[in-house]
Amino acid sequence: MIRFIFPLIGVLLFFFEPVFSLFSPVDIGGEQYTLVPRFVIVYLIFIAVYYSRKDAVLYGIILGLLYDMYHIDIIGLYAFLYPVICLLAVFLIKHVYRDMTTVMLLSLVMIIVLEILSYFFAGLISLTSISFGEFVTSRLLPTMIANSLYIGMFSWFFKVLFLDKDLHQQNEFM
Questions:
Q1: What crossing angle do the helices spanning 39-50 and 5-21 adopt, rounded to 10°?
Q2: Is 23 domain-assigned?
Q3: Which has the closest alpha carbon to 11: 54, 49, 64?
C-alpha cells in the first residue's frame, strides 16, 4: 500500500492543477494576468532530487501523457518535457549543494524553462499569437509568483516524504 503513495500524490496534484486554474486570469488595473499552476512538475523535481531519478522520469512520462490528453490536444509535448525537466534538474543539482533553498530555486528555474519551451512550441505550431514580451509580463511572472507560494508551502513536506527512511524500509518489505 505504501508504494502507491508517491503516484497517488502525483495524480492528486494533477487533478488539483485545473482547480487552481479557475483563479486565472486575474484582472489587475485593467490588465489580465494568467496564473498557471505547475504542481506536478514541482513534485516531479522533488522526486528526482530527493528520491529517484528513474521514478521521476517514469511518473513524468505518465503524468505528461495525462496532461497532454486532458489539457492540450497535442500528445507527447508534456510527456517529453516533464522527464527532460527532471533529468535537467538532477544534472544541475549534482553541481551544487542540495539544501532546501537550492531545490526550491531550482524548481522555479525549471518552471521557467518549462513555460518558455511550451511557449516556443505553441508559437512554432501557431497556437499562440502573443509576443514574447507580453508572455513574460502577462503569464510567466504571475505564474512564477503563484508557484513560488506553492513551493514555499509544500517543499518541506515533499522533502520529508521522500527522505523518510522508515517509509522506504516498509516499502521494501511489501
A1: 150
A2: no
A3: 64
